[in-house]
Amino acid sequence: MSLSPELEAAYREASRPFYEGGGAISEREIKMRSWRYFLEINSGCNLKCPTCTKGNTGTGYEHLTGFMDPDLMERCIDKIKSENPDGIVLLYGNSQPFMHPRLPEGIGAVKSRGLRC
């Protein structure tokens, strides 16, 4: 989907602080649009943060927890690689990735495809 010229200009302007600030995000990543992928390999957490739906049980939000099947993870990483070979794959979203018993293998799967993790 392409953006209108007005939205394209607004996107460029809103992106400037991210790459002009000298941080880890460059203008190259901004131009990729989809450059960052959150792959939730573990949906569990051992904390009880009051602002998080995973940790705050008083929200009424029912959250199932578990580990992503390794085959599914591999397929997801392959899809990311096919869509953006320069993407960054983050193996977490709203969880504790260090709880996953096969986290090193997940990082290896991302790195073996030439993606950043």
Topology (elements, then pairings):
Blueprint: H1 5-20, H2 27-32, E1 36-38, H3 70-83, E2 88-90, H4 103-112
Parallel strand pairs: 1-2
Describe this structure in words.
By secondary structure, the protein is mainly α. The chain has two domains: 30 residues, no CATH class; 79 residues, no CATH class. The chain has four helices and two strands. Strands 1-2 form a two-stranded parallel ribbon. Strand 1, helix 3 and strand 2 form a beta-alpha-beta unit. The longest helix is centred in the N-terminal third of the chain and has 16 residues. It is globular, with a radius of gyration of 17 Å.
Could you provide a short overview of the structure?
The chain is mainly α. The chain has four helices and two strands.
**Helix amount, in percent?**
25-40%
Mean pLDDT across the residues is 82
Order of helices and strands: HHEHEH
Low-confidence stretches: none
Gyration radius (Cα, Å) is: 17 Å
Estimate the strand proportion: 5-15%
Keywords:
2 strands; single chain; globular; mainly alpha
